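Standup notes
- DV: blocked on the single-chain target, sequence here:
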Amino acid sequence: MIASPPPPSLRNLKNACCFSPFILGSSYHHRVISVQSQRTWRPVMFLNQKPTVKDGVLSINGRDALAGVPDNVVVTPWTDSSAFLGATSAHSTSRHVFKLGVIQDARFLCLFRFKIFWMIPRVGNSGSDIPAETQMLLLEAKEETTYIVFLPVLNGEFRSSLQGNSANELEFCVESGDPAIVASESLNAVFVNCGNNPFDLMTESMKILEKYTGTFTIREQKQASQFTN
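- DV (later): unblocked, structure below
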């Protein structure tokens, strides 16, 4: 009998590229991630459950994503496996930091902006490991072969980014950059999606956001410049 290949896992990613030495924290130095281009991904059947918050737990397609979700967090389902996350406040300001919930003992890969024009990766397993100005968070759910991606998006006059705190809580920061432009809520600040193949998950998520925002085109839809031929 031929054994089936192991499910995709952040634990199995190795030998491709070293993380930048600029990453803070010695525990992240020299960590290695790889992608096996010929890997066969094992399909997983989802139950097509709409994203919900129940008893303080955010579930995406039946998979627990965050615990300890505050009451002011708003979930707007978009597809069977995706939703927009936002939050409300009692006061208006040009900058809000909202808590989304707790991430603990769950492996993740994120991309964060460490300089104005540069992003680098970081890995961790709790909310406190997530740096400020995180632009993408790929979380490995405790159920094997399941991944959840969080993508902060532009929401009107406000930009969003992710970050963690010392209590292992995932937060999102929304800011207009102008003291005159204020708001008391941001309802579609973070896009979240779930899937069993991290590569297909990212592609699908960007296609959804392309249609939702109408402000960008994914690479496969762009026409190559003549000088590249």
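- Follow-up: Residues 1-5, 11-47 have pLDDT under 50 and may be disordered.
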